[in-house]
Design brief:
This protein is α+β, with helices and mostly antiparallel strands. The chain has 4 domains: 65 residues, MutS, DNA mismatch repair protein, domain I (3-Layer(aba) Sandwich), CATH 3.40.1170.60; 94 residues, 2-Layer Sandwich (Alpha-Beta Plaits), CATH 3.30.70.270; 65 residues, 5' to 3' exonuclease, C-terminal subdomain (DNA polymerase, domain 1), CATH 1.10.150; 141 residues, Dna Ligase, domain 1 (2-Layer Sandwich). The strands form 3 sheets. The chain has a 5-stranded mixed sheet. A 4-stranded antiparallel sheet has the order 9-12-10-11, covered by helices on one side. A 3-stranded mixed sheet has the order 3-2-4. The radius of gyration is 24 Å and the shape is globular. It binds a DNA duplex (18 and 18 nucleotides) through α3, α9, α11, β9 and β11.
DNA sequence: TCTGGGGTCCTAGGACCC
DNA sequence: TCTGGGGTCCTAGGACCC
């Protein structure tokens, strides 16, 4: 047990972020049931729903067609990722005035380590209200702020502060605050874990806290032990243990695409793999990562999904190599002609740095690097659709020059608790 | 009701080595 | 030639998050 004074962590969460941003661009949407994420007859899920739409049971991660049935009068809006990024940057900027330790956890939520800022900003509740007001004047958007001694408590309390509120859990009161909450309110406890806990008679976080740590570890392994800590408000295990604002390199980079309609057309499938490979390669180069493992993801009509991975002798960040492996994996596993719903390409197992320049064919390698850098540059200037390796040009991408609503960074997650409220 | 796209973390089995 | 034990790497799948 550490004897250092408790930390003061803020978790700030924008209220109905995508919907609120859309309202700024079209004020006529205000107060109406609005669904962001795509049109009512499209294949896809709800990225965000306005509070008016939520009254009908619509929630994030729900299929758009389901939302349309629950709330026929809802207005369906395509997402605008660039708008959300723009407003996310504004949010980030405001936060920077309150603490140097800021971490955007996604487009619409952030952690701040406010420990030791009392001299400058005053007591936590006071500074939180100032932050809340500053956010409103800078962005015209509402947010909610949770304050606690850990990321976990801050996050749970911001959820309880919604909408448009501030909630401070006093140091030492963590267990008391959490005890009456449903176990599903703990981040990381989803539908499956919730059911398992219910099955052994655990409904509330307080029930969990009364259990023996070793018992939980025995039942649920590593996760059980983390869960025991969480029930007391500790940042036990995994990502939660990182310092706020600490830089963490990504562990994988991937892209996937769900077809508007399932297709068994080999040319179309290959061109999709090409495009996905290019997108992955591009991001590897931007980040300076070399991937040792490439993975193909394949989903059929019936939603059955397989992944097939392959590790390389020589790490890569080059489109053509990524495509070669993706294509090989695809044809080795695809039931020929079977309609495909989704394809994905993912790179992982990174070795950053320049130790893996191909020693076998340096000249060829260098030509490729130059060609790809030039292509990246052209894309920067003229947009993603302006260039592609030969195969990428053939297939089904011309249709996607418009903003694709399916490319939204998601809200969502479809927790059991969401479904139950529905 | 027919299920997006971006990720992280964990588990478990098999290969392989000592 | 019936069967050990630990460590590490690889792969596949699944829960979970926004």
């Amino acid at each position: 047990m550490s004897t250092s004074p408790p930390r003061t962590i803020f978790h700030l969460d924008m209220d109905a972020f995508f919907v609120s941003v859309e309202e700024l661009f079209d004020p006529s949407l205000k107060g109406k049931p609005v669904v962001v994420g795509g049109q009512r007859d499209e294949r896809g899920v709800v990225s965000a729903a306005s509070y008016a739409a939520r009254k009908f049971g619509v929630h994030s991660a729900m299929p758009l067609r389901t939302a349309a049935k629950l709330c026929p009068q809802a207005i369906f809006v395509n997402g605008h990722p660039e708008r959300y990024r723009e407003y996310s940057a504004k949010v980030h900027e405001v936060l920077g005035h309150f603490s140097p330790l800021v971490e955007m956890a996604s487009v619409d939520e952030a952690y701040l380590d406010m420990t030791g800022t009392e001299r400058l900003h005053g007591r936590p509740l006071h500074s939180a209200h100032r932050l809340h007001d500053a956010m409103k004047s800078a962005t015209q958007l509402n947010c909610s702020i949770g304050i606690g001694t850990s990321r976990l408590v801050a996050k749970v309390s911001s959820a309880k502060a919604k909408p448009n509120g501030v909630l401070w859990v006093l140091p030492g009161e963590e267990a008391k605050f959490l005890a009456p909450l449903a176990v599903g309110d703990i981040p990381g406890v989803g539908k499956v874990m919730e059911q398992k806990l219910h099955a052994i008679g655990i409904q509330r976080v307080g029930d969990l806290a009364r259990l023996d740590d070793r018992d939980l570890e025995h039942r649920f392994g590593k996760w059980g032990l983390a869960l025991a800590g969480k029930s007391r408000g500790e940042d036990a295990g995994g990502w939660f243990d990182n310092e706020v604002g600490e830089h963490v390199d990504p562990k994988s980079i991937g892209h996937e695409h769900t077809f508007d309609e399932d297709t068994g057309d080999a040319e179309r499938l290959q061109s999709t793999l090409m495009r996905l490979s290019e997108m992955v390669g591009r991001r590897l180069r931007e980040g300076g990562y070399f991937a040792r493992t490439l993975q193909l993801k394949l989903r059929y009509q019936d939603f059955s999904t397989i992944t097939r991975a392959q590790s390389l002798e020589q790490p890569t960040q080059m489109d053509n190599q990524i495509f070669d492996h993706a294509r090989r994996l695809f044809f080795a596993n695809w039931k020929p002609g079977a309609p495909v719903r989704l394809l994905g390409v993912q790179a992982s197992n990174f070795e950053s740095g320049s130790t893996q320049l191909d020693l076998l064919e340096p000249a060829q390698n260098e030509r490729w690097q130059k060609a790809l850098a030039a292509a990246d540059h052209v894309r920067d200037k003229f947009g993603e659709a302006s260039i592609g390796l030969a195969r990428g040009m053939k297939g089904g991408f011309r249709e996607r020059t418009h903003e694709n609503p399916a490319a939204l960074p998601g809200k969502g997650g479809g927790k059991a608790s969401d479904a139950k409220k529905a």
